[in-house]
Design brief:
The complex is a heterodimer of chains A (about 300) and B (about 200). With about 300 residues, chain A is mainly alpha-helical. Chain A contains 16 helices and 1 strand. With about 200 residues, chain B is mainly alpha-helical. Chain B has one domain: Up-down Bundle (Cytochrome Bc1 Complex, Chain C), CATH 1.20.810.10. The chains are: A mainly alpha (about 300), B mainly alpha (about 200).
Chain lengths: ~300, ~200
């Protein structure tokens, strides 16, 4: 029997159809279903974290991070493009896309997260510390801040370390002032309004928050949002999240991606390639014949095949 | 006065011929379907569009009082819940529709562009959904933004799309992406109507 040419307009048997009726019924069903689900299950709303709430809840973590920002040793300080030139960014073999795109969102963690916000306080003691910091060369600044960060990390729960030999320069004063500023809520305002008095861009406070060594990632871990918990597809609480990102999330759970320093570019590139392959299935050999080889279509069109058999 | 033959060379006339004259009302709003169109799987395409419309309705209500409204208002929180469950249903319907079309090999018979526009709509939806998660202005959006930035930065996109810039994500989510998605969906539906529903594999007439 000759196969029907799928590109030709259908001339075989038809059945009555009302597209507008179908669309109307579908809309009403979806509307009722959504309203029912929203009324029954609501939606999550975990309150946003601020630099104020962080400094109050985990003072030691805050001051260690603040000192790290001065030393340029935090995640943001060591990031590379698009924030700074401290690193080249991730690479795919010899290809360094991030480096090629350059520093488009310049961030100097010491200046942007600590020195400039402290400058808005107009406090004489802090201003003296800022002046001493600014007068020192980069090597001296780094030496002070690195030594103080190490001391704070070693002390674990301390929010300040005594400096009898002036080993840390103005850093203890700067960090203590920033800690007081954060606790009062002024640091949130200073960082969000540093580029515009009416901000919509939260890059600086979020980068600072993301540099947190334990507090911010700890909150995410408790909400099963970490990368090794399939976090990208999860939502806070027990609500469904972006489950459609399951394949993207999967790669971060397995080697070589999970242990690679270039995991993000590897996963993004692989997903880009797979997505392109999915779009191009109609012209890809072997793949476009899978539906003919695995006869799930026999279930979908079972009524039609049955009537064909009956008629033949 | 120019003759009708001159008019036919004008781009406006050519555009008209290339579009409207190719579509008969019967194609766009038919009163019959091929007899093989009788499976529950066919319902998921129209359900996806219905969920998309509901997303626009609930999204538009959410825009009325700003992005932080739903944190402080009981009514706002309900609309946010409605939007969330619309998203979940939208993706559920779309994925079932997509897999259904895959197993039907729905690209057969010069329907490649129908498949391609459907896939592009799926990927555009993922990015639209993602920007929606970025603008929740709560802990979830903070965490997603700080994690997702690494993916975008790694491939250079982060230099132009900054996941930490809530204003940028907000405007893209409520204007650019819904318009782009709407255009792709309309193109997809027109192609479906113009090319017709793909006949069963190995069907004979």
């Amino acid at each position: 029997m000759k196969k029907y040419d799928a590109s030709k307009k259908w001339t075989g048997p038809t059945r009555p159809y009302d597209l507008i009726k179908e669309a109307t019924v579908a809309f009403v069903v979806v509307a009722l279903l959504s309203i029912g689900l929203a009324a029954l299950f609501s939606s999550p709303d975990e309150k946003a974290v601020t630099l104020q709430s962080w400094s109050q809840a985990a003072p030691a973590d805050f001051v260690q991070t603040a000192s790290g920002e001065l030393a340029g040793s935090t995640i943001s300080g060591q990031y590379g493009p698009p924030y700074n030139t401290a690193a080249d960014g991730q690479q795919l073999g010899p290809i360094k896309v991030a480096k090629f795109m350059g520093v488009r969102i310049p961030i100097n963690t010491a200046n942007d997260f600590v020195i400039k916000p402290l400058g808005t306080l107009n406090d004489p003691v802090t201003n003296t510390a800022i002046a001493r910091w600014n007068a020192a060369d980069a090597k001296t600044q780094s030496g002070w801040a690195t030594a103080y960060t190490d001391a704070l990390t070693k002390a674990s729960t301390a929010v300040t370390i005594a400096d009898t030999n002036d080993k840390y320069g103005p850093v203890p004063t700067l960090v203590t002032s920033l800690y007081a500023m954060a606790k009062s809520g002024a640091l949130d305002g200073a960082l969000t309004t540093s580029d515009s008095p009416l901000p919509t861009n939260f890059t600086k406070p979020l980068l600072f928050l993301a540099d947190s060594g334990s507090y911010f990632p700890g909150l995410a871990d408790a909400q099963h949002l970490s990368g090794d918990q399939w976090g990208v597809m999860n939502e806070t609480g027990s609500w469904p999240g972006q489950s459609w990102l399951w394949l993207y999330s999967l790669w971060y759970q397995v080697d070589p991606f999970k242990s690679s320093g270039n995991a993000d570019i590897l996963v993004m590139s692989l997903m880009g390639l797979l997505s392109l392959g999915f779009v191009l299935i109609p012209i890809l050999p072997i793949l476009h014949r899978i539906p003919e080889r695995i006869p799930i279509h026999r279930i979908i069109w079972r009524d039609w095949y049955r009537s064909e058999r009956k008629n033949s | 006065m120019s003759s009708s033959s001159d008019n036919s060379k004008m781009w406006t006339v050519r555009v008209r011929k290339a579009t409207l004259e190719k579509f008969e009302p019967e194609d766009l709003l038919p009163d019959t379907q091929p007899a093989y169109v009788s499976s529950w799987i066919y319902v998921f395409g129209v359900l996806t569009i219905a969920a998309f419309l509901m997303l626009i309705v609930s999204g538009l209500i959410l825009t009325l009082e700003g992005p932080a409204w739903w944190h402080t208002s009981k009514y706002g929180h309900f609309i946010n819940s409605l939007h969330l469950w619309n998203v979940e249903l939208f993706f559920l319907f779309m994925v079932v529709h997509l897999w259904g079309k895959f197993w039907m090999a729905a690209w057969r018979g010069k329907r490649t562009m129908t498949w391609v526009t459907g896939c592009v709509a799926f990927f555009a939806s993922i990015f639209t959904g993602f920007t929606g998660y970025l603008i929740q202005t709560n802990f979830d959006s903070q965490w997603i933004a700080t994690q997702a930035k690494d993916g975008f930065n790694a491939v250079g996109i982060g230099a132009y799309f900054n996941a930490l810039n809530t204003g940028q994500a907000l405007l893209i989510h409520v204007s650019l992406l819904p318009i782009a998605l709407g255009v792709i969906v309309v193109a997809h539906v027109i192609l479906v109507r113009k090319k017709g529903v793909v006949p069963p594999i190995e069907s004979s007439l």
